[in-house]
Amino acid sequence: MRFSSTIAVALATTFIEASALPRSGGACPAVWTQISQDLTQMFIQADGQCNDDARSAIRAVFHDCGTWSSSQGLTGGCDGSVFLSDVENARPENRGLQSISAKLKALASQRGVGVADMIAFAGAHGTLSCPLGPTTKTMIGRIDSSKPAPDENLLPGNASMSADTIISLFADKGFSAADVAALAGAHSSSKQFFVDPSRAGAPQDRTPGIWDVDYYSDTITKPADVFVFDSDIALSQDPRSGPAFKSFIGQQAAWNQAFVDTFARLMLLGVPQEGLVDCTSALPPPRDSFPGANTPSGASNLTSRRNYAFYKPVKQVA
Ligand code: HEM
Prior knowledge:
Blueprint: H1 5-19, H2 31-43, H3 52-65, H4 81-84, H5 86-89, H6 98-111, H7 115-129, E1 139-140, H8 163-171, H9 177-184, E2 191-192, E3 202-203, H10 214-221, H11 230-237, H12 242-247, H13 252-266, E4 277-278
Antiparallel strand pairs: 1-4, 2-3
The structure holds protoporphyrin IX containing FE.
Protoporphyrin IX containing FE binds at residues 52, 55-56, 58-59, 62, 96, 156-159, 161, 166, 180, 183-184, 186-187, 189-195, 229, 231, 263.
């Protein structure tokens, strides 16, 4: 769905007014519980794994918020512009986000909430929609903008970028190299369509429907049916990000914790925090035991154990 800039501005104004509701602080508006139910329908496929809409929603958080740099202060970043600005939406790095953009904008309009909040909430819901996915603290009350992010080169989202470029761009957003290693694990749930169109749909680990740590081992061992990004290989090898990257192999709980710590910060880049309300409780519960997931021997579920030293990849690494 495409919007003219005039319509987009009008819609953005509507969304700002709708978003004004929760900015007084306090309880999470009940509408987010309804939205959570909507997203569960949208994101979980018949076999219980997360689907393409879920992975696109997770990526959308990165592409909305990741255009922020420290020079922008409390502007830009997580402002919905990746969906609300036609200019930004059409940039090459945002290819593949058009379908989820149309769906989440329609849902935001239907439920009367802001698009920037919808992107953040849907991204957090997306990780939970993948079995073994963690709960990220999710605040609501962002201000929408249809102004395009100022510089497309601020988003470290190109698979041919060097580790140095990616780490530098993230450092300007307040993330360490270890944080980058944790965030890149989102590729546990991802598929590529545009890096190599001849292999459209190829996943970045063997289990894109499950939020597991196979990504970290698969990036190193490169199974034949996995499409490994050069950027992920570079991050696994760089002396700054590599140790953290390798430390997550086989360590589901450690990665989940590191991921939610960084993802919660990512989804607040550029956002004035006064008046935000905590809507984490509107998210669905984690599904940390799942048929086919190779959870630790003897553990009833993942949250019941603090140490997953016995966690093994779903398929053994060759
Ligand atoms: C570290 C730097 C990163 C680079 C270079 C990068 C690059 C890419 C590329 C090239 C794609 C494939 C797009 C396509 O061809 O369809 C992709 C997909 C994806 N990325 Fe990243 N990404 C990075 C970080 C992140 C972060 C921080 C997140 C979220 C927290 C994320 C989440 C995803 C997801 C979920 C997909 C799959 C989207 C889908 O299947 O539709 N990425 N990424």
